[in-house]
Amino acid sequence: MKSTIVFIIASAISLLLWFVVQIVLHVQFTQNCGGYLHRAANANTIELATAEMQKVVDYLDRNDLKSGYTSVLWRTPGDDIGFWYKNLSSSLMELKQLDKNASQLEKSNVLLKLRETLTDHEGLIAPTGIDRHPHNGILALWACLSLTFIISGIVIAIKIDSGY
Prior knowledge:
The chain has 164 residues and is an all-alpha fold. The protein has one domain. It has helices at residues 2-42, 46-62, 81-97, 104-118, 136-161, and strands at residues 119-120, 123-124. It has a two-stranded antiparallel sheet. α1 (2-42) runs antiparallel to α5 (136-161) and α3 packs antiparallel against α4 (104-118). It starts with a helix and ends with a helix.
């Protein structure tokens, strides 16, 4: 019985560590990319938006977040990193190519288009699970195994306790 309890506790600790890893990955992505996307979407000048978008694209390049899917079991359009990367890169290019002598209306239109590209009514537009990519599969397996071990340990403990 003692070893079963140790097994359950170890599995629960594993699941707790899984949650911690998820939080750390989310915070790291927000600090290095997501926050800059928000700032670019809220920028009031072309220069500010360009600087923030450059940080985003540089981060994506450094971390090889240019292609693939964030999903584990199937591929959906919302999980397509390649499309998202191309969209962000082309937005940055459009910001950089805007004529310095452009009218205020043209600048406002580009900034509005950028905001619409980066955000919707739910917040940032990004592939689901991008903050965990490329570790999505390993993290899903880790969670499934931890939960399976916890449930198995509880079932075994109940059977042992009831005399089976």
